[in-house]
Amino acid sequence: MKRLLALSVPLLALSAPAVAQTTLYDGAGGQRVSQYGGWLVFPPGFETFAGGATVLNTTLPDNSTQAGFSRFDQTLNRTQGFSLGFTLKVDSETHDGVNGPNRSGVSVIAITSDLMGIELGFWSDRIWAQSGPSFTKAEEGFFDTTAALTNYSLQISGSNYQLLANGTSVVSGALRNYSSSGLLAYNTTNFLFFGDNTTSARGAFRTSRVTLTNAPEPGTVGLLALGGLLLAHRRRRKE
């Protein structure tokens, strides 16, 4: 009896689902994002490769250039929870257009499977969130985005998000639903974007790695534990 119970502990540990991480881009192999697979890079011609990272530059000739990397082939389930990891450095960013105070030349967008999501703008000294369909600057956190390649983690769970930079929280808040804007990107489920999506700003950034980590199904670990308890109870009664 005791031996069976002792064996059930490591079995439960081995049966628990591991957190699944998918590498969406890794510049270590010398490839640009467009060469890695899975990404739509549009328009072409604005990405280069240097020092193990893809560089996207929309600073020339003016704010009119819009370009970026996007994909929508991964499941972004906010109920289950997930983390978008990316290693990124802002080389330059200027927001001097008509709507400049509410725009960024370097943005990251994550739209979940039910169209909730967050758009974050990266300026040289801060990172901030787009308010909603009106697209005005909302909560922000001060951080030097130009100092070095930084390991960011955009964590989304339930109705909230949090952005970490090298493990430290920079900005957090509630997820938004931007779909009423009518813009296709915000009406596309499981949508990810890195780039410049405005004519009121311009920027240049480099990224060396992008990953997606999905949390285990919330009920799975609990069911495994319950199964172990029921087994132990059954053994006690039987013996």
Number of strands: 15
* CATH top level assignment: Mainly Beta
Q: What share of residues is helical?
A: 10-25%
Give the overall form.
Answer: globular
CATH topology-level fold name: Jelly Rolls
Distance between the termini: 8 Å
Which structural class do the helices and strands define? alpha+beta
Kindly estimate the percentage of residues that lie in beta strands according to DSSP.
35-45%
The major β-sheet equals: 8 strands, antiparallel
Looking at the overall shape, the CATH architecture is Sandwich
Give me the strand/helix succession: HEHEEEEEEEEEEEEEEH
Based on CA atoms alone, the radius of gyration comes out at 21 Å
The pLDDT mean sits at 88
Q: Can you tell me the number of structural domains?
A: 1
Sequence stretches where pLDDT stays below 50 over 5 or more residues? 1-16, 220-239
* Count of alpha/pi helices: 3
Pfam families: PEP-CTERM
Domain Ice-binding protein C-terminal: 215-237
Organism: Armatimonas rosea
Signal peptide: 1-20
How does this structure look, described?
The protein has helices spanning 2-15, 33-36, 218-238, and strands at 20-26, 40-42, 47-50, 53-57, 67-71, 82-94, 107-111, 117-122, 126-130, 137-142, 150-157, 160-165, 168-174, 191-196, 202-214. By secondary structure, the protein is of the alpha+beta class. Strand 9 (126-130) and strand 10 (137-142) form a beta hairpin. It has one domain (18-219): Sandwich (Jelly Rolls), CATH 2.60.120. It is 16% helix and 41% strand. Residues 215-237 form the Ice-binding protein C-terminal domain. Pfam families: PEP-CTERM (PF07589). InterPro entries: Ice-binding_C. Residues 1-20 form the signal peptide.
